[in-house]
Amino acid sequence: MKVALYHSLLFIFLLAVQISFLDVLFPDFLVPLIILSAVVVWTVGLGFRQALWYLLPLLILYEVLVVGGIHLLSIYGVLLAYGTSFLSRRMLIENSILASLFYALGIISSACLYQWITQEGFHKAWSAPSFTSILFQILIAIPVFLLTRKILFAFQSRMDTLRSDRALMIR
Amino acid sequence: MGERRNFLQSKFFWALLVSACLGVTVWWQPFFITRPIKIIGTSVLWPVQSFFAPVAFELQDMKVFFQSIGEYKRANENLQKEKLVLETENARLRDMAAENKDLRKQLELLPRGTYDLKSATVIGRDVSGLGNWIHINQGSDSGIKPGMAVIVEAGVLVGRVDEVFPLTSRVELLSRAESIVNAVTLDTNAEGVVKGEHGLGIVYDMVLQSDQLKNGDTVVTSGLGQVIPKGLLIGTLQDVRLTDDKLFQRATIQSPVRFDRLRNVFVIRGEK
Question: For residue A112, which of A44, A43, A29 has the smallest C-alpha distance?
Answer without folding.
Answer: A29
